[in-house]
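Lab notes, practical 5.
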Amino acid sequence: MRIRREILIGFCGGALTWLAGCGGSGHASTEKYWLVATNIKIPYWQSANAGLLHAAQQIGVKAEMVGPDTFDPKAEHEFFQRVLAEKIKPSGILISVADPAVMQPDIDAAIGQGIPVITVDSDAPASKRLTFIGTDNYKAGLMGAQLALKQLQGKGNVVVFTMPEQANLKERLRGYHDGFEGHAGIKIVETVDFKGDARIAFDHTQDLIDKKGMDKIDGFICLEAIACPEVADVLDRNKVGGKVIVAMDADDPRTLDWIRKDRIAGTIAQKPFTMGFVGVLALGTLHQYPPNPLDKLWAQDPQSPVATFIGTGEMLVDKSNVDALVSAAPQK
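Output from the prediction step:
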């Protein structure tokens, strides 16, 4: 019996969590799984929430996404604490980590209380989280760098919009730096912390135009979903052409519209729906078959029964395939 249980953990807690039968039976209707994130009103997180709810319905459990409407790591911590304080103990928690330094103690505390925790989208690799489900963010950065190099023909000054404390964005930026290595003509001349606020991205781009700084800029790179639609909007309003924009994510219809209009060269699409969907199924399995002990640093164990990383995939969306992506999207 012990052997069978360990096999189930290894099979269902690893890269095959999306299989419909994996942890899909024997769940109690009282089980509830949570997703904690920031900026939860944006299309990206609404897509993740759709995956979360779809998986919960499939296996007959409850699920809910909570978090602040803005990028606010402290508020995310507070929402996480509220989830831990629920009268009915959470069956499992998904967390997109805005700031690992803020969230690691919370994650470890939840694990210490016997609650499985999985990071999605943005990781806290030093924590005791069981698995990270999301994009290979370094690869996403490399893909973006290749597109930028092609569009800029190997030379130009680039502005990057990011949020420096997020681990996933650090990995994307590392991918860009490595992708630009050996191309001395490409220079990142400014890295802007836009704090997850679309207004900052808009205003900063407008300031470049107003202060005559746009003449020295050849391209814009956005490591997160919110900034580049704003950049494209500003350039379009001011009739500024000839600038290369490489965006991130494909859940905001504005990004796809700007690609169609040749304002954005392309975007690196993630799969937030898949993160939410696979995340619930993985938590359901871990709730039924928890590793023993739960609070072990399984990521450092060569015989871990859970996968350290489950990749959900990433892809380039540009003028060649944007119409197909829009056509395939569910109608709202």
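Observations recorded by the TA: Residues 1-21 have pLDDT under 50 and may be disordered. Residues 53 and 63 are 6 Å apart (CA to CA).
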